[in-house]
Amino acid sequence: MFSRRLAAGLQPNRLALAVDQARVAGRLRIDLTTTNPTAVGLPYPAGMTTALADARGLVYEPAPFGTAEARAAVAAFTGLPADRLVLTASTSEAYGFLFKLLCDPGDAILAPRPSYPLFDLLSALEGVELTAYRLDADGGWCIDRSSLERALSSRTRAVIVVSPNNPTGSRLRAADREWLVDLARRYRLALVSDEVFADYLFADRPDAASLAGESRVLTFTLGGLSKAVGLPQMKLAWTGISGPDDDVREALARLEIIADSYLSVAAPVQVAAGRLLEAGAAVRRSIRLRLERNLQALRAVVAAMPALTLYEPEGGWSAVVRVPAIRSEEEWVIGLLDEYGVLVHPGWFFDLDTGTHLVVSLLPPPETFDAGVRSIADAAARWGA
Ligand SMILES: Cc1ncc(COP(=O)(O)O)c(C=O)c1O
Fold it and tell me: Which residue's CA is the closest to the ligand 1 atom numbered 15?
């Protein structure tokens, strides 16, 4: 009766069951997997949402790419031209639009590994094949070019780049951007650059690069309120389209039909977009301070425990810690949950497939974060590392 877009037998795995049980029994004390900025005690400016009550939100003005006012607000924030912006309810929806735009069922998209786990589902839901290309851990998670070349096929339509990447925090290098642009031109591929974490950078990297506004190949650059101002519940994201004029024109004409079939961005958030982006500067600052503070605390714990290794993130909201292979990742996670009430992600959740890794969010409140990472160090010592 059902399509094969979703795998048969949607049974929760052992880890999901253990987490559910710990939650029900009240044993889960410290959640280091949370990436919900509205649930970690950050201050949001009073009055930030008053514009949502603007009476203009009562008027329905269907606009496939978003209202002129909202696009102008996003253009002012991103520096991307308003007439080359498409607003969607989320970045996830933007991926759906792009896969419909670029792929026939069975066509393929290349995505980095390790990276954001939702890509698997987002592509499967569009009938699109997701093929992984590797990021090179030893090279600071830069693109493994030979792996990307091997992943190419006659059905490949686009390459996704995530910068900063989730969970490694690594950024696209300028040299890799040049290489990618050249490859995309040769094979007539589009580039999809997920830059949702671009506002959260930890260090200057002169060799890092953005694809926003890239004019040599058809390029889609994604961002949204979710990360830019810590408001995922507002449901407003954007895609900037750039490239050779003919390709951009054609892409916009087709995207207009796709977007017009959904018209999913609510009027109130479009009316409020300018105000949310403006007031959001304070939220962004608080998030940045929180990330830097927690990263510093993590560095200190790892420095005192030689068995742990931190992959220094260059940006983003998470960090990858290499732990000794005295247990499997799943045993580490379940052990931390059972013995310490601490929840972390196993590396495999993000397709980190060599070595034993745990992934922690850098967003939790400081006391929670510190207690959580101290538990990881304590477990490493107790379990014989
Ligand atoms: C790399 C990446 N892209 C996109 C998103 C989702 O953003 P949105 O809330 O706009 O769908 C996330 C969420 O964590 C992410 O990590």
Answer: 116
Q: Which of 16-20, 38-42, 158-162, 243-247 has the lowest mean pLDDT?
A: 16-20
Q: Nearest-CA neighbor of 143 among 167, 119, 165, 116? A: 165
Give the amino acid at 35.
T
Give me the CATH number covering residue 147. Answer: 3.40.640.10
Tell whether 3 is covered by a domain: no
| Burial classification of residue 12, based on how many CB atoms lie within 10 Å of its CB (0-12 exposed, 13-18 middle, 19 or more buried) | exposed
| Same domain? 132 vs 243 | yes
Concatenated DSSP letters for 276-337? HHHHHHHHHHHHHHHHHHHHHHHHHHHHT-TT-EEE--SBSSEEEEE--TTS-HHHHHHHHH
pTM for the full model? 0.97
How is residue 34 written in tokens?
A: 């949370």
> What is the pLDDT, as a whole number, of residue 385?
66
- Helix, strand, coil proportions of the chain in percent (round to 5)? 45, 15, 40
CA–CA dist 11, 320 (Å, integer): 27
Average pLDDT over residues 114-118: 97
- Tokens for 31, please give them: 């959640």
Shared-domain flag, residues 79 and 209:
yes
Nearest CA to ligand 1 atom 5: 91
* Domain containing residue 114: 50-278
Q: What is the DSSP string of 68-103?
A: HHHHHHHHHHH-S-GGGEEEES-HHHHHHHHHHHH-
Partners of 88 in beta bridges: 237
Residues 162 and 303 in one domain: no
Cβ of 239 below 6 Å from ligand 1: no
* Cα(315) to centroid(ligand 1), Å: 14
Residue 328 CA to ligand 1 centre (angstroms): 28
Q: Which of 86, 166, 363 to probe ligand 1 with, by most ligand atoms within 8 A of CB? A: 166
pLDDT digits (tens, 9 = 90+) for 220-253: 999 999 999 999 999 999 999 999 999 999 999 9
Nearest alpha carbon to residue 239 among 81, 35, 11: 81
213 and 357 part of one domain? no
Residue 7: partners with Cβ closer than 8 Å, 6 or more residues away: none
Q: How far apart are CA 262 and CA 159, in angstroms?
A: 25
Q: Does the Cβ of 35 fall within 6 Å of ligand 1?
A: yes
Distance 35 CA to ligand 1 centre (A): 10
DSSP SS3 for 49? coil
